[in-house]
Structures are given as structure tokens and as C-alpha cells.
Amino acid sequence: MGVLAVLIGSLITILDPVTQLKRGRDGTRKSDLSQIQSALELFRADHGCYPHGTCLALAAFPSCGNNFSAGGVTYMSRIPCDPINAGQHKYTYDSTGTTYNIYSCLENINDLLKDNPNNPIYCNGTTNWSYTVRNP
């Protein structure tokens, strides 16, 4: 009887379109942060630091929708925006010039890659769970 209940619960979750939309947006967020990370590593390879006010007198990392370029090199033609792009659902970048963090808020409470839900770094940890990408 218990196995049947688990199976029915699993099927409801799989077939729930709202849950599927959340998982899809979370997949987009993870992919976007990975692409941004690649661009940041290319930038560091060229300039010896990550974008920061002290790195080559560059301004802060560009906001979503803008291109990421420096010294005549385009690292990303368009910084991706969070699929919702409102409230906590915005990609956030912070850097010291030698390290960086990129934050996103995930919607799926069962995502295995979310940050520790008991110690949310960026998101509220009640309805959104943070996902952080750091420099390697």
C-alpha cells in the first residue's frame, strides 16, 4: 500500500504542469549561470582578474540584457536574464576581482543542487532557494 502511495505521488508530481514549469525555469537558470561563468573565466584569462571596479578600472559586471565586453573583446553578446526577472528572480553577481559569486533563486524545493536551505545565501529559503556558482 505504501509503495502505491509513493507511485501515485510521483505521478502527480511528474504530471503537474506548474512543477514542470518551475523545473524548466530552474534548468534555464543553471545553464545561464554556467554560460556566464565561462565568459568570466575567458575575461580572467585575458585580464588576470574578474570584472570588478578595481580590475582595469572596469565598472561592475553588466546587468542582464547587456553585452559583456572589454578591450575590444566580446565575452558574451547578451548577459541572460532570469526567466522571471522580477523580485528575487534576478541573477546577482558579486566580486572582489579575485573571486566571484553568481546567485540565482530556484523555485523547485526538491532540487538537489540548491544551496543549504537552512542557510540561504541570497534567496529567502522559504519559497525560493539559492543556487550559487563560484569561481573555480
Structure description:
By secondary structure, the protein is of the alpha+beta class. The protein has one domain (20-134). 33% of the residues lie in helices and 18% in strands. It contains two helices and five strands; from the N terminus they run ααβββββ. The protein has a three-stranded antiparallel sheet, with helices on one face. The chain has a two-stranded antiparallel sheet with strand order 1-2. The model has no long low-confidence stretch (mean pLDDT 84).
Topology as H/E string? HHEEEEE
Global shape? elongated
Distance between the termini: 47 Å
What is the number of helical segments per DSSP (H or I, 4+ residues)? 2
Report the sheet-strand fraction. Answer: 15-25%
Question: Could you provide a short overview of the structure?
Answer:
With 136 residues, this protein is an alpha+beta fold. It has helices spanning 2-15, 17-47, and strands at 68-70, 73-76, 92-95, 100-106, 129-134. It is built from two helices and five strands; from the N terminus they run H-H-E-E-E-E-E.
Features:
136 residues; alpha+beta; three-stranded antiparallel beta sheet; 2 helices; elongated
Q: Secondary-structure map with pairings?
A:
Layout: H1 2-15, H2 17-47, E1 68-70, E2 73-76, E3 92-95, E4 100-106, E5 129-134
Antiparallel strand pairs: 1-2, 3-4, 4-5
